[in-house]
Amino acid sequence: MKENIHPAYGEIAVTCSCGNTFTTRSTMKKALHVEVCAACHPFYIGKQKIIDTAGRVEKFNQKYGAMRKLT
């Protein structure tokens, strides 16, 4: 391998919105925040839940809700 061309690879802390934290290795230099992890993902826990991050459904309805009334 060529030297001095690869990014630094170190440990970072990953925090999920459910409160779960773990460490992993990455080229990122700061901590990472994720919306869903293996501890709260519906596929892994066997339960369905609605994950609406930052009000995306409401934002969509505000933007395109008026169009529904026109048609």
Automatic annotation (TrEMBL):
Binds the 23S rRNA. Binds 1 zinc ion per subunit. InterPro entries: Ribosomal_bL28/bL31-like_sf, Ribosomal_bL31, Ribosomal_bL31_A, Ribosomal_bL31_sf. It comes from the Bacteria. Belongs to the bacterial ribosomal protein bL31 family. Type A subfamily. GO terms for molecular function: metal ion binding; rRNA binding; structural constituent of ribosome. Part of the 50S ribosomal subunit. This is Large ribosomal subunit protein bL31. GO terms for cellular component: ribonucleoprotein complex; ribosome. One of its GO terms (biological process) is translation. Its cofactor is Zn(2+). The keyword Chloroplast does not apply. Keywords: Metal-binding, Ribonucleoprotein, Ribosomal protein, RNA-binding, rRNA-binding, Zinc. It comes from Candidatus Accumulibacter affinis. Pfam families: Ribosomal_L31. Zn(2+) binds at C16, C18, C37, C40.
